[in-house]
Amino acid sequence: MADQPRDLDDNTCDLRKGEIARAWEQLVATARRTVADRLVVGTSGNVSVRVGDLVLVTPSGVPYDRLAPGDVTGVDLDGRQVLGTLTPTSELPMHLAVHRTTDARAVVHTHAVHATAVSTLLTELPPVHYMTGALGGPVRVAPYATYGTEELARNLLDALTGRTACLLQNHGTLTYGATLDQAYDRTAQLEWMCHLWLTAASVPGRTPNLLTEEQIREAGEKLSGYGQRDAR
């Protein structure tokens, strides 16, 4: 008989349970934040965070404000559910593709309005702001594929080459980072840059000034050391 998903009380040491419980709490908080900040509507979008070889993910079709500590949902890197009983997000192939092929510890996917609008117009977001450097360079648009498919996962991996964010054509955004906070911040920055581009490009008779590759590289290098060296 195939292994069944288990809960945190089954064959999981106390230390591991505590780490997973904290990660789940942070994941739920991040998912709720995407709704509060209007980056998604209802249960659209999804979030994942990696704990060792375990990937915790938001479940499919469950409002984020209803998720509780006992709803923890986790899969291994092959997609086999090993924690919880709720069905994982339908976008699991996309999340697992990123976790398997990058150094991502957290992934955030949204349907942010301005970013999705840009995904219908361009194949790459023009570098209108130096925060482009924080995402590795101009953000590419992954060609459209049906949600939840391996084709979409392949398309987004191509778009993510050398980047920590991409747009999904006629769909939304995907970003990743070392933490949920970093992945979320990249999502918010991407949506803001898309809003900026749409605003500047809409001015009749004017063309937005774009940054050069060298300017983006310099900004990226400077941003890599941004913030406090030691917050403690």
From TrEMBL:
Keywords: Lyase, Metal-binding. Pfam families: Aldolase_II (PF00596). InterPro entries: Aldolase_class_II_sugar_metab, Aldolase_II/adducin_N, Aldolase_II/adducin_N_sf. Residues 25-198 form the Class II aldolase/adducin N-terminal domain. This is Class II aldolase/adducin family protein. It comes from Streptomyces galilaeus.
